[in-house]
Amino acid sequence: MRRFLMLASCCLALLPVWSQAQEAAELALPGQSDVRIVVDISGSMKENDPDNLRRPAVRLLARMLPDGASAGLWTFGQYVNMLVPHREVTDQWREQMVARSEQINSVALRTNLGEAIDVASDAYYSEGTLKNTHFIILTDGKVDVSDTPSANAAEEKRILETLLPRLVEQGATLYPVALSEQADTEFLGQLAADSGGHFQVAQNATELNFAFLTALNAAVPQEQIPLKGNAFTVDQGVEEFTALVFWGAQETRETRTLELVRPDGQTYTLERAAGNMRWAREAGYDLMTVAEPMAGEWRINGELGNGSRVTVVSDLKMVVSPVPARFSAESPISLKIAFFEEGEKVTNPEFLQVLDVQLKITAEDGRSGTKTLSEGAVPEDGVFTDEIGQLPVSGQYLMEVHADGKTFGRKFSATAVFDAAVDGGAAEQAGRAAPVKQEEGNAIEEIVSAPKEPEVAPAPVIENPIDTSMAEQPRVVDTAPLGEMSASNQKAELTRPNWWIAAGLGGLAALVVGLLAVKTHRSRKAALARAAAERETVDDLQSGSPERDSNHAEESFGMADFDLSDFDDFPEQNRTSTPTGDVTEEPAESEKK
């Protein structure tokens, strides 16, 4: 026993060291990622992808993958083919990927997804490990290895129960993308959920490009420069930038016009690009890469579709801790942001104090909120922290970190799904009851969406103290009003063996019950007070509340902390009441379609 206690003490003593090491690892410069792209070429793609949108989407991945990462392309039907060898990403590899993407077709007979993952997951390509390995999988159907349904079901079971756990244990993450709602979305969703990845359904070229870009951004987080309108500022430390500009909804290749304007006014187009530029135009997007760019404000003349971005290669990097694919109130996102220059974390207070670091969260319906993370004292370790554990409703949210350093800007983005049901819906109810508040300076405004009256906490269970010698008998709980005994409880007492003991001790019982009633009343009163404190009402907060410390590492961070001036309330017509009286969210008509 003594040896066990000593061992436990040693482990407890090492916990702070382990936690610090884990934190340091999270904020270290990320290692090079391994991306394996697996594309379905089964015959059903002729119907679900008649325009072969897979080709430009694959070329988008090829052009956006950073130097130094490793990647390969596999196609599959009944058999699996390595179309582009798994290699380090270089200009030569990109050219090969772009050229061979033209061989993606729809001629295969089956959909042997398990074999494709098996072949592509060979650890030989990564020296025996799948750590930091990400699979981007595009398919339109279900597992189809035989005409016999039982054989297909058995293969699905093998993938989920044997193959997937092995890959996850080795460190792999899967990002399935379905090119049709006819795909087995439940099966593909489980591949993503069990491995910590994202699952998406794409119905057109725009959605497919976004789905691939989301998967790539999760697999290989890339630093960005914030776009302000149609302009962005390139600082002296930027070695290269890549501007990805999505087309407008009505634009075509024939009507598309786009200009890139240098800080000195020099204008470039697809037909008149400079020698240090690579400009590619595909269905739905333009991609412009500029090496050794001139410092200053660049402009893009033309329509910038949703999702347009500018990524950079620079010695000055903003590093953000990994954002999980899913989170909840019980399992929140612990956000950490630090800056690195030439591989070293920046802790110089003169640099950190001029930074304006903000977190912006955008819901699926376009509503957004922001919170400033750089207020207050400059962090001594150079790490800005916060926690995201509470949002109004379940759904997918876009997380963006913006840093403005006066002479430079950086941006990070990631998507994550908030699951309010994890804690039994309490998180979702708390989100709906979020009050409205204005704070001078940081202007925090919260959503109000049909706040509910605080539920009365249940009274503590009171066991009848009479006849304590009968412990083996069923216990009877009195649920009558405080100070009274229910008729059913009285009956139960009278039918117990030795009831005459109760009668003989009636006076004593009355005294005990009276004392317990007083104690229970006080307990209930305290419980109600605690419930009221935990469920702040609109009136409570409008009358004034303590100011928040935005840098407090242990503070829960949800929509209550955002500037939601551009957030509209949840539409009343989209809410229904369940038989229990709980409010539930239903999709808008546009979403149902």
From TrEMBL:
Transmembrane portions of the chain: 499-518
Coiled-coil region(s): none
Biased composition (Acidic residues): 583-593
Xref: SMART domains: VWA
SUPFAM superfamilies xref list: vWA-like
Signal peptide: 1-21
Residue span, VWFA domain: 34-216
Composition skew (Basic and acidic residues), residue ranges: 546-555
Keywords associated with the record: Membrane, Signal, Transmembrane, Transmembrane helix
Region (Disordered): 530-593
Protein name (database record): VWA domain-containing protein
Organism: Marinobacter salinisoli
